[in-house]
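quick one, two chains, predict together pls
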Amino acid sequence: MTRKQITIGCGAIILILLPPAALLSGNPYLISLTSRIIIYALAAASLDLLLGYGAMISLGHAAFVGVGAYTIAILHFHSAGAEPLFSWPFLFAGSNNALLTLPLATLSASFAALIIGGLSLRTTGMHFIMITLAFAQMLYYFFISLEKYGGDDGLSLATRNSLVGLNLGNSSHFYYLCLAALFVFLILAHRLVNSRFGLVVRGAGNNDRRIKGLGIHSYRYKLVTFVIAGGSAGLAGALLANQTEFVSPGLMHWTLSGELMVMVLLGGLGTLFGPVLGATVFLALETTLAMYTEHWMIYMGPFLVLTVIFAKRGLFGFLAGDKGKNG
Amino acid sequence: MLLVIEQFLNGLQLGITLFLMSAGLTLVFGIMQVINLAHGSFYMIGAYVGATVAAYTGSFLLAVLAAVGAAAGVGCIVEMLVLRHLYARQHLDQVLATFGLIMFFNELIRIVWGRQPVFMNVPGALSQSIQLLPGLHYPTYRLAVIGIGLLVALLLWLMFAKTRIGMQIRAGSSNREMVGALGVNINLLYTLVFGLGALLAGLAGVMAGPILSVEPGMGESILILTFVVIVIGGIGSVRGAVAGALLVGMVDTLGRAFLPSILRTILAAATADSVAASLSSMAIYILMAAILVWKPRGLFPAHG
């Protein structure tokens, strides 16, 4: 076993054993905190597909988290209210069944990613950063102006979604649903980046011109990666809506996109597992600092600047050695 | 008709503010190839320092001078402490470090001035309205903002086109190694350009103070508009910044003012209002997407 496999294995075992351990030691709040960490880890790992492999620096990833979350909330809103979501071409009254809502949330976020990515990927470099940011802000203002779904105040859910065989209201059950989503994503993404497809995307991230010179239309590969990352962020958003039982346009605000980026860089760019670690450290640091001072950002800001200037490999590179890079 | 002229002037005034923001930012992008998210923080610092000095001394002129000085000073310090280390790094590192700077400045402002918005009065001499046309009264202050903005644009153009430092800046944006090899102190030039950008942002901030509310995080909303301006105009191009700023200012202001009544002629009143509300807040982003499909490098690309 390599050092990297040991690091990943230990992380997985800790995450699997956490709920019973938290219950036994009398700290049940740890379960919901860790669920939140896992959800953010999923969003951050999906962003790593773009940042670390395709060198697509998207500053609008929170938009897809928000679209996923709003899909859950809107479906719930209509299933609870009298008015159906739409009545043509067939009657659809909304839904609260996770088997339907989670895939729909992923799909709608993928669709948003297809449109935003399709337009943004026409550009590169600084243009791409600013355009993804602007599109995310556009969705943010769009949802603020949607008075029907709460506008600026957001929308509350009466209950979490229902899923056969599980009680999502129970924090342990919900925790394992989130953990399963994260594991499935990490396994699939790991296979993806090491496939021929992933090779092309990584090549395009390194030197787009050479990939084009090889006769490969890199735009399509990048767009598919963008859609996969967007859809996974949508799934994270759907889980987040279920956890907090509340959605608001704040989920799409660009500061969340920035925080996701911070988690990726903190954990290690282009490692997939690193962002999980990054999300853990970021949220743990935020929670701890917030206990001592409400002005925790005054410490977080300079910490971030110093991390960028001095730590280049991220925490995962530190733990897993130089072979931390995935592929 | 009078309403149209009035909204047109409002659009011009927003455009001028955006121009002051984007001129500095586009120079920093174009010359140093660095993406600076913290540009909005200089705007915020300008507004806060200006509001405080105006409240203590009662003099708007002193407030403007203090705001501009503070923003430029903070800009130079930030360049020397942080950004200088990032010129050779990837855009991703620059985004993250400047994101950290935003967190720091927003929280610093909250600690020093508190969470409540700070109010800034319109200076006494400019607090009246002026009659432009029969029946059209327009606040003198807003006209003064437009005038100062146009004056600054003229001065910037003179500086770039006619002076030695302007020549060096233009040369630096097309080939920085060559400028360094010719004996220009590149480090100093970069600090000065960055300070100039921060100064313009501070000026925009203090002038917006009496119009908008001065609050933590005010820098971010204008920063994103500025990004839209720069993407539309073309990164690194001051001409593009002028065109983009005016376009965005007009589309945003006129859209908010007239879309509801235009849509009411074809839709039911309630539907029209909600559609207009979403459309007008999204209008500039739709404009940006359209321009991007047409010209991916902006209206006036700076290089090639």
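The interface with chain B takes residues 51, 57, 59, 119, 122-123, 125-127, 129-131, 133-135, 137-138, 141-142, 144-148, 254-255, 258, 261-262, 265, 269, 295-298, 300-305, 307-309 of chain A (CB under 8 Å).
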